[in-house]
Amino acid sequence: MIRIEVFMATGCQLCPPAIEAAAVACSASSKPVELVITDIDGDVALEHGYRERIPVVEVDGGEIARFFVTSEEILAALEQARP
Predict the structure, then answer these.
(1) Model-wide pTM > 0.85
(2) Which of 6, 14, 55, 80 has the fewest C-beta atoms lying within 10 Å of its C-beta?
């Protein structure tokens, strides 16, 4: 199963559209996909690593998009990922 993870934070205006784009990509993918939404609020390590660039989308642990995210970007990464 391919893991899509969206790192987000409360109050981020770009995060809801990124989450929606990830959900759309999951629905359109022909591969088995798991969507995980990770809220970085309150986690010092995650805050340090992601706060200045959220939303961040990773596919199987590799960053594929940040800030303005589209379902097409995510789908393209899914097509290249191993199932």
Answers:
(1) yes
(2) 80
Domains of the chain in start order, with CATH, are 2-80 (3.40.30.10)
Burial 12-41 (b: 16+ CB within 10 A, else e): beebeebbebbbebbeebeeebebeeeebe
Identify the pLDDT of residue 53: 93
Question: How many Å apart are CA 9 and CA 82, to the nearest integer?
Answer: 29
Contacts of 65 (CB under 8 A, 6+ apart): 18, 56, 57, 73, 74, 77
Compute CA distances 71 → 11, 46, 48, 49, whole Å. Answer: 21, 24, 26, 23
- Nearest residue to 3 via CA among 53, 62, 46: 62
